[in-house]
Amino acid sequence: xxxxxxxxxxxxxSRENWWADMPPRTGRGPRTRRWVLFGLAFIVPSLVPAAVxxxxxxxxGKELVIAALLLFYGSCYVLFPLSLRPSRRKTTYxxxxxxxxxxxxxxxxxxxxxxxxxxxxxxxxFTLPPAWALILDGGALLLxxxxxxxxxxxxxxxxxxxxxxxxxxxxxxxxxxxxxxxEAANREIATLAVAGERERLARDLHDILGHSLTTITVKAGLxxxxxxxxxxxxxxxxxxxxxxxxTRSALSDIRATVSEYREVSLSAEVAGAxxxxxxxxxxxxxxxxxxxxxxxLQRTFGYVLREAVxxxxxxxxxxxxxxxxxxxxxxxxxxxxxxxxxxATVGNGLRGLTERLAxxxxxxxxxxxxxxxxxxxxxVPESAxxxxxxxxxxxxxxxxx
Length: 401
Prior knowledge:
Elements: H1 5-18, H2 32-57, H3 61-79, H4 89-109, H5 118-127, H6 130-151, H7 157-229, H8 233-258, H9 266-279, E1 283-285, H10 298-316, E2 320-325, E3 329-334, H11 348-359, E4 363-367, E5 374-379, H12 382-386
Parallel strand pairs: 1-2
Antiparallel strand pairs: 2-3, 3-5, 4-5
Helix pairs in contact: 2-3, 3-4, 4-5, 4-6, 5-6, 5-7, 6-7, 7-8, 7-9, 7-10, 9-10, 10-11
């Protein structure tokens, strides 16, 4: 087995291309009616001499056979695009072989003149896989050469010209195949680009709205409880003002995200996390500075902190949260109920964070510490920093809502 699977795959694809049918047309291309006019313009010059012979030499059995074959042969050439349907593969093969046999018959009936064979060899080049076209066209030309040699004909100029034209048609057909494959690839790339943009929007909107709406819900609930108790009305008003500010900020973030101009700041996320945890009446042990975090990782770690704190407020029932940062790592730990250690790859938000970190060569793990609770750790090896894996950070990939 080869140590280079890419090369093996390339070889297999090359062999498959030789035996593959013509790819379907992606654009409008030439219409069948228009091709009929072009086809008639090409085939009529071959029909006119036969018609002149019938008019001048009289009608004989051989002339009638030749005229009938020429008429059928010309009709096949003009109408061959009708056989090019994916559902008519067998019909296409039979049609091409029959046309080639008629062309050979006309060559021998016309004094071994090979020019009439051009129409059949051209049709085969466009209707059959390249391997079959090469085998059948090459075999037909070799057969004509053999007849030339048997009858002692020493002028091979016509046969060389026919061979050259056939080769040109063969390479032109392969060029059409390549163009159609490129068009199909461009369509697929466009589809993937749209899907990728949808995933980016879904993930970023999840990160923004999930955190903002959670904080708004907690603050609105706190303000409601204060107002219902009839105590500390100024604090309730303050919480309502903060809810209003959060909604405005969330709208601004959504507009910026759609325009791809939104940036996440780790220091701003620390401040936001502290405010959200305070509103949820959760004791927050968060760093006051983020200078020790590598600047290239601060945006990614800002997303991690935001999602981790949002999950604590939503699901954990924790009373205390502690976050710690290093140059290339971040940990968020709470004393809540904990959860399944596989949630890091299952939950929507954590799955999106896993993909963000994977894009920069990092990992995300979620575990239950010995004392209980939940610990989320994001880490990026220093080798990824040195290798420049963080270059695509401004355009995150993947994600989910």
